[in-house]
Amino acid sequence: MKNNTISLLTLYLHLWMYQLLGIAVFAIARIAHVANAVSVDTLLQHSDSFPLFLWNSWRFDAQAITYVSLPMILAILAVPFFKRPQAVERLKGVMRWYFAVMYAILSAIVCAEFFFFDNFSSRYNVVFFDFFDEGPLGLLQTMVQDYPVFRILAAILLIAFLIFCVGRYIGRVVIGRHGGGNLVSSIVVCLLIAGLTFVFMRGSVTRYTLQVEAFMVSTDDNINQAVPNAIYLLKKAYKERKNSFMLQSDEHLLRKAGFANIDEAIEAAALAPVVGNDNREKVENALFDKAKGVEKSPNVVVILNESWSRFLLEMDKGEKLDLLCSLRNHIAEDLLFENIQSVRNGTIYSIETVTMSMPYDKFFNSRYRFHRFDASIAHPFKQSGYTTAFITGMDPTWENVKEGLSYQSFDTIIGRQNILHSIDNSTTSAIGVYDEFLYEYIGEHLDRGAKSGKPQFVVALTTTNHPPFTYPDNMQLPPLTDEWYSSPYLVGSEDVLRKYGLGAQYSNKCLGDFLTALKASQHADNTILLVVGDHNVRSILDYEKVSKKYKHAVPLYMYIPQSLMPGKIDKEVVEQRYGSHFDILPTLAPLCIGEGIGYLAVGNNLLDTTKCNEAYYSYNEKQFLVSSEANADSLERISAARILLMKIYYQQGFREER
Known about the structure:
The protein has 658 residues and is α/β, with parallel strands linked by helices. Helix content is 49%, strand content 8%. The chain has 24 helices and 13 strands. The strands form four sheets. It has a seven-stranded mixed sheet, with helices on both faces. A two-stranded antiparallel sheet has the order 1-11. A two-stranded parallel sheet has the order 4-10.
């Protein structure tokens, strides 16, 4: 077998030259998009983001071109096994034709996106595939009528011809003498090529692959939208379409849940009498309650605290093992509900549950995320005159959070880049801005709100208590003692336990420091704060020894100024109530929503003084909990009926979107 190391290197050089042509196509498309969508003033104001913009843009382009080139890369890796020199020349010809055709297709996709943007003011998303729902003839007619199809085709053919011509010159480039080298050198080169290909396909050499978070390079959305290329966005849109919910009729959902009709389901849900002329009207009347109103609307801050674990709070032993840090006094002073579960078991699912009470997975990744729903937690606050915001230390493009929430009555969506630009000396981990800087930003947000004269509604998400568990350089925490490392309830190596322990301490300290600052500020008497875990901590709890009731248990803490407290609350009694994320809005609404404004009341008001504790339940999709004195079967039927009504409510909206 003849060895072809030099031929292998020559062909790989040709491949890189073809790939540079593909990068050029993407670069031209990006320049055209920026010229069309971003003003010169905006570019000048955000010039400091250019290095990251160029770097992340190149990463997306290199990744896409690597996938396009993959068949040719595999063919090149077979070169050491070619027995005839003519095979190398034939492969050069195949590459020439292959890239001419593929880049013509690539150009067509890029051109189509340009016109898509002109029509929808958005880059490729799941709506693109609605064109194909018209059928072949309807699609063809739409294309000819609405777009300069023939000019586009002519331009694409010209690009293919130019690539083909350039390929002739690329094919003449050689490195030294053909056929040199031995088998070992050929194998080494093949391994290097395979390694580089793997890196480019991942788009990263770090733990995390290239994802939508890399869109966020600036505080300006128009600049961020220019980062990804059309191929990446089209792939993302196709994945969303593929994962869209399968719609079912109301009758099917009712029958599956064991109800004969909608009236029976509403009665079982124990929400309100059956009122309405059709299913839609009946469901909305049952699910939505109207606020009685308040004299003055306070600020409201809801914080989803990453991996905040109820069991880890109970492991605190003061000086022997200080896990609570500066949060300790606030828990003693205020309300900490002890029997709360996350409804779902992941961050994105909890964001969707807290903000939307969404009973379906990955709503923000579906085609239906563009539909506005009154069920949004922000909707009644917006109707009551609040300024509404979602603030997080992460890049909010993750899982389409920013795009999804922007349709759900949130005025602004704030993420990593906004905080880094606003808070002096702020720093970030791979996941997001460290929690202490997130809390500092929330404080400044409330200060700006006070100057505007409008009450503020904020939903925030922390990020630091999450792998890879990195922290600011100046972090100071109490030592993790043997009480932690020798606990019979924990599993994992000492290094793993140290990371999770520091994460719990840092999370609690940042929250406690924020509460201390809040209570000493101008907002102390006019701000309600609710903090809840997005989900329980993972990996380190041994459920052979830890009670199963803690498996999905998260703390729910509330700070309510005395002047805003709804009557006389027995702290010891109320803190024993069972609940979940579904109960957040029904608990907050009576304290701050304007008179007559509707809000989703699928959960229970945890502060209702007219209810006994036995009327409350805690729903998690994997586990249903109630107190030992409660009627579990009756409450579980109520919960199932309410979730069914939520599914019917949302599916009615989804059908409208279609």
